[in-house]
Design goal:
four-stranded antiparallel beta sheet; alpha+beta; elongated
Length: 419
């Protein structure tokens, strides 16, 4: 029975058409309320579409960006550790390796292991699987230690209590030289960033070498958020300082903290170009963010902090292949470009105007809800607003029948009068 009623309800809904009916209400309050709602919607549409979202303009988000960088400066190390020693370092040694377009790396700390050659030596004690008490613990022969430095020879070294391995010997010692970075004056290095963006829709190219920047200006300018916001030359120490959430910390302390273990910093370049104005008015905004995890608390321990990598240099000495392995800590700078261009477009403007006009229909929906469910005369309004076609047809047929009867009643009287 319930299924049959459900089928009938669905059939009734499916075969019923609803049309709007215009009902006029001579009420000052209702009419004023309707105009207030329409005005509020109109003001919202004008502000949101044409002021906030610039709906009269076409937006091009498909800008093609390219960035190149050039590092300048001189640093020196003065360490008693023979792995580093006393030495001058120029950009070609500090900016190593090149990470390609859109990024650059600057070394802030390093550990060097010199003169390794292939042979047999005890594995490092920190490699747990290679710890042993006898030769049996080092079997099978040739077993590589995944987190170690080589493959087992099947022998246990009694002095170190680790397995003897076939590897580059002696194995790498990556203990930090000290709790301070080995380089001095890395923070004073500067980087020159050139950024270009091409907008295909407008066939325009913009660059961060804005109007007024020439060779003379570039020799002396340094980026500053307030004093010199368009200079494309940045001091490394200033970039690191601008990433700090706590601005009360001294810049030297901030840089020393990131220098020990390294880090990853995003150099953001934001373009918002309004081509309704001259091209020279389009200028970039810079912002800097540290991306690697630098927070640590009781519930969140760092597993692998900072940024580092290893590089090996092989050479022949006394007819023997040897290598120096360097573990470099440093800051990886990624250059991120966010670009959008806009200009007046007639098609976009009219489309948004049409959308706004369509939204005015919301006022009718609000007023219908108010009158049908909240107004004191809602019952009368419902009767006027909602009518069933069958009831209207039945009423029309009734009136037509009454008209026919009246016509029949008048006809005999007309015959009598003629007689």
């Amino acid at each position: 029975m319930a299924v049959r009623r459900l089928k009938l309800s669905f059939l009734n809904w499916f075969t019923t058409y609803h049309t709007r009916k215009l009902v006029r209400l001579d009420s000052k309050f209702t009419g004023l309320l309707n105009r207030v709602i329409q005005l509020a919607i109109l003001i919202t549409i004008i502000y949101w579409i044409f002021v906030h979202d610039k709906g009269y303009q076409y937006f091009d988000h498909s800008g093609i960006a390219s960035s190149v960088s050039k590092l300048k400066g001189v640093a020196y190390s003065n360490s008693s550790d023979k792995r580093v020693g006393t030495k001058l370092w120029d950009p070609w040694e500090i900016n190593l390796p090149s990470h390609g377009e859109g990024s650059f790396f600057i070394t802030t700390n390093l550990i060097v292991n010199q003169g390794q050659e292939q042979g047999e030596c005890p594995e490092h004690a920190d490699v747990r699987p290679a710890r042993c008490e006898s030769d049996e613990n080092c079997l099978p022969v040739g077993k590589p230690y995944h987190l170690g430095h080589g493959a087992s020879t099947g022998r246990c070294d009694n002095s170190t209590k680790t397995c003897v391995i076939q590897a580059w010997c002696p194995v790498e010692d990556d203990r930090p030289v000290s709790n301070q970075p080995v380089f001095h004056h890395i923070a004073d290095f500067t980087v020159y960033i050139k950024n270009f963006v091409f907008f295909p829709h407008f066939n325009e190219t913009v660059t961060n070498l804005v109007e007024g920047i020439d060779r003379k200006y570039l020799r002396s300018c340094r980026y500053h958020p307030q004093d010199d916001p368009y200079c494309p030359i940045f001091r490394i120490g200033d970039i690191v300082r601008l990433t700090a959430q706590n601005e009360t910390i001294k810049s030297d302390i901030i840089f020393d903290n990131i220098s020990i273990k390294g880090g990853v910093i995003s150099v953001g370049i934001k373009w918002d170009c309004n081509f309704d104005f001259p091209l020279e008015k389009c200028k970039p905004l810079y912002h800097f963010t540290r991306l690697d995890d630098m927070q640590e608390d009781k519930n969140h321990k760092k597993i692998s902090s900072g940024f580092n990598f290893r590089a090996a240099h092989k050479y022949i000495q006394n007819s023997t292949w040897k290598r120096d392995i360097t573990k470099r800590y440093g800051i990886l700078f990624t250059i991120e470009t966010e670009a959008v261009a806009r200009a007046f477009d007639l098609t976009t403007c009219f489309m948004n105007i049409g959308s706004g006009v369509a939204l005015l229909g919301i006022s009718t929906i609000i007023m219908d809800i108010f009158i049908m469910y909240l107004h004191k005369k809602r019952v009368v309004y419902k009767e006027c607003k909602i009518q069933n076609y069958k009831d209207v047809l039945r009423e029309a047929m009734r009136r037509q029948a009454e008209s026919i009867l009246r016509h029949i009643e008048r006809k005999p009287k007309q015959i009598d009068d003629q007689k």
